[in-house]
Amino acid sequence: MKFRQIVIPLAMAFWAATSSAQAPSWEQENAAGMQAYRKQSYTEAENLLKDAFRQAEQFGEFDPRLAAVMSNLAAVQQAEGKFAEAELLYNRALTICEKVDGPEQLEVATSLDDLANLLVKRAKYSNAEPLFERALTIREMALGPVHPDVAKVLSDLAGLKWVEGMYSESESLFKRALAMDQKTLGPEDPEVALVLNYLATVYQKQGKHKEAESEFYRALAIWEKTLPPEHPNIATALQNLATVEQDEGKYSEAESHFRRALAIEETALGPDDPGVANILDNMASFFLEEARYSEAEPLFQRARTIAESVFGPEHPLVARVLNNLARLLCEEGKYSAAEALYRRALAIREKTYGPDHPDVASVLNNLGTLWQGEGDYSAAELAFQRALAVWERVLGPEHPNVAAGLSNLAAVFLREGRYSEAEPLFRRALYIRMRAIGQDHAEVALILDNSSRGKDKEALYQRALAMSEKKAGPHQAQVTSILINLGNLKFSEGKYSTAESFFQRALAMREKTLGPNHPAVASILSSLGMLDYLGHNYSDAESFYKRAISAWDQASQTQTFNYAQTLQNLGVLYFDLRKYDEAGALFDRAATIKEHLLGKDHPRVADALIKVASASLARGYYAEAESPSQRALSILEKSSPPNYPALIQALTNYALVLDKTKRKAEAELLETRAMVYRAKLKESKKKGEAVLSARQP
Prior knowledge:
Layout lengths: L23 H15 L3 H15 L7 H16 L3 H19 L4 H16 L3 H19 L4 H16 L3 H19 L4 H16 L3 H18 L5 H16 L3 H19 L4 H16 L3 H19 L4 H16 L3 H19 L4 H16 L3 H19 L4 H16 L3 H19 L4 H10 L5 H16 L4 H16 L3 H19 L4 H16 L3 H17 L6 H16 L3 H19 L4 H16 L3 H17 L5 H17 L3 H23 L11
Helix pairs in contact: 1-2, 1-3, 2-3, 3-4, 4-5, 5-6, 6-7, 7-8, 8-9, 9-10, 9-11, 10-11, 11-12, 12-13, 13-14, 13-15, 14-15, 15-16, 16-17, 17-18, 18-19, 19-20, 20-21, 21-22, 22-23, 23-24, 24-25, 25-26, 25-27, 26-27, 27-28, 28-29, 29-30, 29-31, 30-31, 31-32
């Protein structure tokens, strides 16, 4: 699952001198340092404030002037990413304020709020919350329940709840702060825009995209009216607006807003600021969704470098970039590298947030998708179930993420033939998405695409295709996936020429986007190979199969089900051409991979073992054929529902082994059992029951 950062700017309070007996040089250095900070001249600001700090130390270790310069210097160091140094200074300033002013004074509340905001940035959430609560209590007692400074602490506390995934609590606190600011400051004050931006981020996390877009536009309008055009808050509003437009399928508007935001942020804060990393990661995720991989990767790498340099290797921003970079590597077929990044991101998030946070679920969901692509359905199922459980518990049963989790879990069930379990999950996912974003959204199309079964299948596919092409253009990855599913549908109906046209369209799109040797291209080549094989175009079929295998080999994707099945299909072709040695080698490889992926007792392993035995029998290797024949029969006899064609083939193979090794009585018993299954197969066909085919394309 994609993961983007919705930006919540944290306000920073500066301390001024509080004593009337000020040393002029200290006062001048302090004021100059604050002015340099406001100009984002952080090195100059730090040097000036360090000079002021050295002079303020002469007033004594508990002088309020020392606390003031400590807080200002801490703010500058925080802006520079020197978080450990800033935390020490904020703690010292707080100690001085509590000793000089008493624990219930407003100066203490300001110091508490500053320190808590820094702790949030350092992902020390459990330490930050009691500080915010204390600051809120002090300000409400001193200023009354309706005051801009009370609203600020409410917003900061709401931001913490947002980061922790407690969106209902966050929404309530932001609404309190918004009402307070509108009453005390007026409806077009920049602080009102700040809270509108916060509230919009909550709506977006809750899947309320229309409400989020509306509030982002309100915030942007206020800031553009009241702030300079290059102010970082304008960049914040632009990139947040872009993320919600991306969710709504408004891709051209989103890209324009991302580019504006990046230009402003780089100008205002410099190229290596964490805010720049934020936009780079969001913009790269946008390009990833658009299948513009060559544009996405350098942005992800630059964001990763900035995040690790500023925050260290275990910060949530680092985890987010790693998660999104892993998604890109998956699209490029680099599954091993992607899995390593996902696991690192998961470890960071579980350590930071605990196991029940929505962002932990996002990584689990992405790992499930990776394992599903590799054919490891049991691992994928467990990951999807964990992610879904977290999302339902934390976000509620009708959140869009829950729809995604339901759809992904259902897709695994579908691949395993567990149709009765998949169907209700797809229906629930479809209901949630249509209720949240309407029936014409591309994500609704995706669920329709995945869930399409039965007589209305083609109509649903065509509807999904039209919706996806309308929302994202003809070259978007989702369009290609639906074309492939249409091709598979026509293949299952025996309409091979129509299937080929869909596959060829999908192939052209993927080759244009991904290049000719991408694993996603390989899967289409394999399907085209099967079509040519069934049309007895053996030379073309062999070429397609070999191209597919070569692409997977180059990507080191040699332990996936699709790879194994293509090896097996090429083996079938060689078997028909009486190239039994080549066929046998391919069948052996396919069986080994399938057993590794699916377990030794899976029916698809039995199918591969039947092929291994058949190749050995064709070459007269009767002793070698016995073990795979026995194993295949044992697996199939325990499988439900019975696969009669495969059972008949397994019995026939084993009977031939016994006959050729002078065990005719046992062979006749197996031949009799094969006759019984042939009768059952004939009877089931008369009744119109579904029959599993021994041939798997």
